[in-house]
């Protein structure tokens, strides 16, 4: 039977890759995120063509609790249940702490951390009712270690790890698991766009940017792929992972082993 899967921040990048994985498994998907209407329509069509499940789009803004509540309700209304929740929405801003704009701090905490409180808050009652559920939080290596100039992002991601563990303990006897995936650098369109500019600014080749700048922290010197993250999400959503809860899967090329 097809599962009902909500994935926040899934109109591009990692979230879209995860949606592709679940679509191929035949699941019903609720996509969410920002973008041009034509790009969102393309994403819905693409995901819909990959399997037998249905795909819909919900435009919930992750800074607005009422819209987040409606996102979860929409999945239940449309598909009759909510089986898998993937919290993936995230934004980044880089600045020394003394120059960090307060409004950017508030935005990052809202989208990268508080939005997941709201999705989980509304998803858990439905999952408890059906006696099963999977909550998967896409965190980051920055949920485990820090980098300078990313105070809001690192704080939010560390918060996500605490949220993951706490909710896992609360719902452990209800057939619900809660876990995190912690990727290192992933070659998303967002990252790819930064490479030529960085190469120009530093006077080095694009390959050197990848190896010596972006992947400096990753011993394998290889990017994590969205397909690999999707595979981890599919495992955590499977019956085989029913005793895996309150923990994380690191996919960072050895970054956090150092």
Automatic annotation (TrEMBL):
- GO BP, sorted A to Z: monocarboxylic acid metabolic process
Q: Which InterPro entries does the entry link to?
A: 3-OHbutyrate_DH, NAD(P)-bd_dom_sf, Sc_DH/Rdtase_CS, SDR, SDR_fam
Q: Name one GO molecular function term.
A: 3-hydroxybutyrate dehydrogenase activity
Highest taxon above the source species: Bacteria
Q: Which PANTHER family match?
A: 3-OXOACYL-(ACYL-CARRIER-PROTEIN) REDUCTASE (PTHR42879), 3-OXOACYL-[ACYL-CARRIER-PROTEIN] REDUCTASE FABG (PTHR42879:SF2)
Q: Which family does it belong to?
A: Belongs to the short-chain dehydrogenases/reductases (SDR) family.
User: What's the protein called, per UniProt?
Assistant: 3-hydroxybutyrate dehydrogenase
Taxonomic lineage of the native organism: Bacteria, Pseudomonadati, Pseudomonadota, Alphaproteobacteria, Hyphomicrobiales
